[in-house]
Design brief:
Blueprint lengths: L9 E6 L1 H19 L4 E7 L3 H8 L6 E9 L12 E4 L9 E9 L3 H11 L5 E9 L12 E5 L5 E2 L15 E4 L7
Parallel strand pairs: 2-3, 2-5, 5-6, 6-7
Antiparallel strand pairs: 1-9, 3-4, 8-9
Amino acid sequence: MPAPTLHPDLESILVTEAQILNRVQELGRRLKEIYGNEEFTVISIMNGAILFTADLLRQVDNAIRLDCIRTTSYGSTTESHGTPKVIHGLTLDVTGRHVLIVDDILDTGKTLSLIAGMVRGMKPASVRVCVLLDKKGRRQVPFEADLVGFEIPDRFVVGYGLDFAERYRNLPSIGVLKPERQKA
C-alpha cells in the first residue's frame, strides 16, 4: 500500500488506513472469541462510529442486530461542552440480549458512561464496549472499554468517522488537525 497522502488540514497522521484495517480485523477475531456463534446486538454511537461499526461488523459472521444512538457533546468545538445528551435513543429491545456498544473514541468517558448505564438499566444479558480510540489522558469519569483499537495521546484527531464541525469524517486515516483549522 502506498504511503498515505497528508491532507492539507492535517498536521500529521496518527493512525494509517492500513493500521486501522489490521486492527479492525483483530477486533473482529476477538469478538468471535467472546461471542462464539451467539447472536449479539450492536449499538453504534452516531455519527462518529459509523465507519468503524460498518467495518467491524463485516469481520464477524454472527447474527447481529444493529441499532444506533445519537448523542451530542462537542458541537462545533474541540472541547466537550459538559454533559452529553441522548438526542435519538434505541429502537430495539435489548432485554436478555448480549450488547456491544461501539464508539469512535473514549475521551472524557462521559458519553460512554451515560450510554452504558442506560443500556444496563434495560437488563441485557451482557454489556461490552468497543472503541476505536482511547484517549486516557482526557478521562474525567472512571470508565474503561472492553476492546480498544488504539490508545492515542491527547491530540485533536479527525478522520475515519471522527470530525470537527462535521468535516473530515471521510478521511481514510486518523490525523491530527492543524491548530489553525480547529476553529468553527
